[in-house]
Amino acid sequence: LAQSAIYLSLNKIMRMRKLLLTLTAFLFFSGALLAQKTITGKVTDEAGKPIADVSVTAKGTNVGTVTKADGSYSLNLPANAKQIVFSAVEYTPQTVNVGSRNVYSVTLVGAGSKDLGDVVVTGIKNIKKADFSGATSRIAPRNVEDRPVGSFDQLLQGQVPGLLAVTGSGQPGNPTTVVIRGTSSIAGGSNPLYIVDGIPVESGVFQGFNPNDFASVEILKDAASTAIYGSRGAAGVIVVTTKKGRSGKVKLTYGAQFGIKQRPEFAFRPMNTPELLKAQEDYGKIAGGGAVMPGWHYSTANPRYATLTPAQRAAEALLLDSIRGINTDWKDYMFRNGPFSNHEITLSGGTGKTVFFSSLALYNEKGTTPRTDMKRVTLRNNIDYADDKLNVSFTSSLAYTKRNFQQTTVTNNLNNPFLSVNINVPYARVFKANGVDYETGVGSLYAAANQLDLTRYDENYNNQIKGVVATTASYKITKNLTAAATAGIDFRETQGTVYGSKLPFARSNPNVVAPTTREGFLTESLTRLLIANVRPSINYLKVFNERHKVDATAFGEYLRTHDKQFTATGYGIDARTPGTPAAITQGNAVNQLFANVGGRKTQNSLVSAGGILTYSYDGKYAITGTLRTDYSSKLPKEGRQATFYSVGGVWNMHKENFLKSSSFFNSLRLRASYGGAGNADNFPTGADGTDNFTYITTFVGSGNYAGIPTLAVSNFGNNGLKWETTYTLNIGTDFSLWKNRIYGSLEMYDRRIKDLFVRQTLTAPGAALAVTNINAGVLQNKGFEWDISVDVVRKRDFTFTLKSNGGYNWNKVLSLGGVPSYLVGTSRITEGLPLGSHDEVGWAGVDAATGAPLFYRADGTITNDFNQAPKVQRWGTYEAPWKGGFGPVLRYKNLEFSALFSWQSGATKVDNLEFFVENPVGFMSGGYNQSSDLNFWKKPGDVASTPSPLFTTNFSSKIIHDASFIRLRDVQLSYTLPNSVTEKLKFISRARFYVTGTNLFIWTKWRGMDPEAGATNINLSEFPNPRGITGGIDISF
Amino acid sequence: MRLFKYIAGAALGVAVLGACSKQLDLLPTDSINENNAFLTINDAQQGANAAYSRYNAFQNDIFVSSLMSDEAKLGVDNSGQGAIPYRYQLSATSGDVNGGYAGYYGMIDQTNRVLQALPNVKANTPFEETRRPILRGQMLALRAIGYFGLLQSFCKNYDPSAKGVPIMLAPNPAAKPPHNTMGEVMSRIETDLADAFALLPAVTVATFSDTVMNRVNIDAYRAKIALYKGDFANAITYATNVINSAVKPLVTGAAFTSIWTESGTTIPESLFRIRNATGTGLGGFWTTTTGLVYIAPSDKVTDIYTSTIPGTQLDIRRGAYIGLLSGKPYVKKHESNRSPNPGNRVVDLKCIRMAEMYLIRAEAYARQSTPNLAGGTADLNTLRSNRITGYTNVANFTTASALLTAVLEERYKELCFEGSRFFDLKRNGLPVNRWATDVTAPTWQNLPASSDYFVMPIPQQEILANPNAVQNPGY
């Protein structure tokens, strides 16, 4: 079937080529056609604001133009022209009959949620919003364009009701964790399905996309909208459509952006030298301590002081003075200001039937810590052809990205600059006396310099080539019947290099470092991922008796993913030829520098068939049914097939007589839907590190028994595994009130995930208490969402709109199917509680009398014995139930201002950094720095937050904190040159200048570097999200 | 209608898709799976190697015996290691003493997988073909001693009709089996051992290996199991077979010490052992390489080597088993002194030794309906003369009970920290009586013979995972 579909589309492409040739020949003569008359006019939006770049074409001909910056146009209309079509991205096209007039000015209605005539782009099929019963949100291109962000999913935060977007790292180009309407799996994942121009692309790898190429980003949330994706839609679908050219004069644009990225401010301030020396002395007075705490070691209060001779005392006083004289602020070395730039050239245009859009962009961002950056080149070419019968759309993008990384930014390791900066002592020197080499050495005093030393010599980078190519062709067989096919490929090749030089001090100590590491090492890895997709479809559309509309589509889909990885590590790298595989020393019996080689190869496939049937009556009511059958290679034969369905209904109430005359309700629509979807792209990970073969029992033949090889089961699969299915009930309304001044939508939903994968312990006789995945348990996500905009002022020269969106999602494990509650990371999966509920011992403060830490017993009484305090789940969940965004959009003449505040509330997170920087026993006594907030118990009666140095610190609820925040995520001020100016500048048709601020401010109780950074449950001193200020210019020629 | 033609076409498409199973029947290329794991005799051999390595479940029996009997006490550096079972506060979740349940079943599952595969694996040479029955015999024997380990720890003293453990004869990860009776399990053990014996070739002193199952160590286990079962005639027969085989005879002096230090190329007296190249699970149970003593020899066992032997005689076992670490007595038996890292606690697991054959036969002589006091005394004298410098044979015991008492004390001396003492007391219906100096509270000084704690708890995970599992009384 797949082959025949490819053949079908190839056949069409061949035919299209012929057409194109004819077309090109035709174009040469078209100029010769005599124009009947010249029409002019102006295109504005509802607020009266002129719209530039509106395509104005004479219908049925290939004559067209685009509007200028002031919305005006002029077109030579051929004699045979009967109608003029005005169309622009983000607006509903409008058709005007040609009469005797010569001036045709129109007002286009925006395609935001305000507009009810819009279409919903589902990626498989575009459906008129009036007929669509699903819950979706759309992000307009102006909200993703010209933002200094390397991965477009980072821009989703605060823009989509019900979508949680948390960026775990400030590394340039890092993806975001996106969760739509709550976590939908325990053992599996909750990544949404991403569709670009009709084809699925890998989730979590977006550094190769240029968001400026996006024409729209549509988020599908409920069953009615995701059921067409069947087994893959359960976690929501994000559909990206890229820009198309517009018929008319070829347009060249240039855009440039420059700016800077900075580290964010945060509450923990490491102690400076006087503070730390004082704290060390206070500590020593209670618990003693060694030379690693000079503040105590050389203190006159130290009992050893009495044993010293006067000469020794004088020498030590001098020593302490010299230590006092060093006050290094490690922030100055671990952070930097990262320059940012982006350049882009686009070329677009076309004639009546063929349009194209090309863009070439150069992105360059340096991270806020040394050695981190991202450089990207993207090239996009989109070509569209349309005639009465045939429609062909070809989209392609090719990207090359290079990203440099630190040694590590996600671990509790001193090589991580974001831990290092907080816990290294300020009285350590950065450089040796020569001012060039870092002051490296053994022990905590040198840890920060050792980090910088590694940063100087080592390398860690990857190069990625990503290509996404999609072709959709549709052919109108009869008036009502259209056959179509989409085929596409998402291809990625990532080449990674990790180079460990032999030069850094940390690798030179033969007592600590393995010989292979000491000689320098180089790891080269190559990952290749290919997702190929073919989807033939057939559509029947007919309106009976002018009122009954039937729209039926049947489609099939075949999807295949190939994943291959190869890794090789060699040793013995000559420092004169750093970072190249050529420098690897061949291993032999003497040098023992044997190279390690490994990798993986895996694949999966999906075969589906489905149909969508919509019936609508008079534009008032519509019902839609969807049916889709999927077969996945990821499941055993018996359970691999599943059928998913959805039903939905829409009632366009404003078309009813009782509302038609209402001056308050401009439009009102009610929607309801119910249906199911699967989670095929988010299966639990199996033994091979992918989710492709989780169900299969696998063996390991590389084990050994005292040196001889063994062969035994490594992973117990489950031949009874089947689909995890999400059933969603969604009720929603779209409205526009009071002269379209208040508009938006509201949603309510209840999602139940059934046959949930849970980790089941197998019996001892069966599998020695090994753990496998079974389908048991039910998970619920229920909540509501709002997306409301208010046009406060709507004057010709001044508009002011306030936007707010948000959602509340309550997640709850309804059942675990008999499997007992179990731990996952810092949380415990328990029936009746949300996922991510922290499981920890309750902290009851510090005993003022003794300085002992206090904890809660099971019965609520207080004890100072940690072992008597059980772990409980009273500390909330790390997945924020409340989240959203809001902000104003103001326009005065050519000046526009917009701001977006994003927020989340109700999440708690473990602050691992606090465990380090408010832990004198564990860290200060070992020669590390502490937070200036440290307040440990010193004498009876002290009200302290940290126990006396006589007591060790345990993990407890003390370090679980509210991770709520409000962020000024995005603010932009732009100015477009007035038409009067651009007309004088002959080459320039439009010029826009802007300033953008990213993450400028954050309001949060969180004291660590970034409430978003790190894994969702715990913060391990990860790369904080930077703030950025950039200025840019867009010029159209 | 044309529409229906297309709908019919689409329906056909669905049918075709369903048939596209070739595109969907994907198997992992990176990992071996059930379809291709065992293809050749060599694969089966590797499976068998894994089964052997899993018999390290037996080390749990050593832990149980030490923590529950009177041979050990909590060391001065103990910060909770094994303390709960030592204090007889054990429960189904405490873990220290019931790891063998999953451990032995993990081994049994592995033997079953090899046994299931063996008839179909390909032999490339006639020699390989000869390996097929041998591997089968080895796996049957291993499976049998695995079941014996389960019976010993997780069931009461042998009673054919009492609750046993579930019998698994084929791999089935989804199994939720109910338990069989002890008689059924015993009968399976005996059948497997008999079948294994028949399949395996005869063994000579030259061909004997203590790292695989063979006719000699099968007889050794048969002797041990017969004694456990109360079948004294067979215990005597099998023990005699092993002793007469002359493989691994009793040794004394430096050769005896080398059993524990592993300084020689072979391990004297060892009839079956599990090799260990890297792990410190057994060696590190008692002490650490940094000199911490977690589980120390009890004062009672430390004293026993001198209490009954008059002064001039020297029992070489005391020095071999118990040492001093910075002035702290410690269990030296599993320390290992093998090069290149002496004292690193990487040590082979000695599962059964020749000395035990003499003790089994002596106990069987004492307990059989017509005691053979001369035979029993002779066995004791043989063993003691190898262990005690300047030993002179004692005269024949005059009563069976005196002989039995002497045999049990000898077992205590000979086999302490080898997974025997607790089960010796259990088998003979005797209580655990610790010395007051070995405990910090009188509540865990003694364990009455009637205590439920002589039977280990089924792990709580098993109870939760298997609705047919029945917890042992008292937990």
Question: Which descriptors would you attach to this protein?
Answer:
heterodimer; A: 1037 residues; mainly beta; 22-stranded antiparallel β-barrel; 5-stranded mixed beta sheet; 13 helices; 53 strands; 11% helix; 45% strand; globular; disordered N terminus; B: 475 residues; mainly alpha; two-stranded antiparallel ribbon; two-stranded antiparallel sheet; 18 helices; 48% helix
Kindly describe this structure.
The complex is a heterodimer of chains A (1037) and B (475). With 1037 residues, chain A is mainly beta. Chain A has a 22-stranded antiparallel barrel. In chain A, a hairpin with a 5-residue loop joins strand 42 and strand 43. The longest helix of chain A has 29 residues. Chain B is mostly helical and 475 residues long. Chain B contains 18 helices and 11 strands. In chain B, the strands form 5 sheets. In chain B, strands 2-4 form a two-stranded antiparallel sheet. In chain B, strands 3-8 form a two-stranded antiparallel sheet. A two-stranded antiparallel sheet of chain B has the order 5-9. In chain B, a hairpin with a 2-residue loop joins strand 6 and strand 7. Chain B starts with a helix and ends in a 10-residue tail after the last helix. The interface between A and B is large, with 67 and 63 residues.
Beta-strand percent range of chain B: 5-15%
Ranges of chain B with pLDDT <50 over ≥5 residues?
none
For the biggest sheet of chain A, the summary is: 22 strands, antiparallel, barrel
Secondary structure class of chain A reads mainly beta
Shape of chain B: globular
Largest beta sheet: strand ordering of chain B: 2-4
Instruction: Count all strands of chain B and give the number.
Output: 11
As a percent range, the share of strand residues of chain A is 35-45%
Shape of chain A: globular
Of all chain pairs, the largest interface belongs to:
A-B, 67 and 63 residues
| N-to-C span of chain B | 74 Å
Number of helices of chain B: 18
Main β-sheet description of chain B? 2 strands, antiparallel
The level of helicity of chain B is 40-55%
Oligomeric category: heterodimer
Give the count of helical stretches of chain A. 13
Helix content of chain A: 10-25%
Task: Output the radius of gyration of chain B.
Answer: 25 Å
Q: Please trace the helix and strand order of chain B, writing H or E for each element.
A: HHEHHEHHHHHHHEEHEHEEEHHEHHEEH
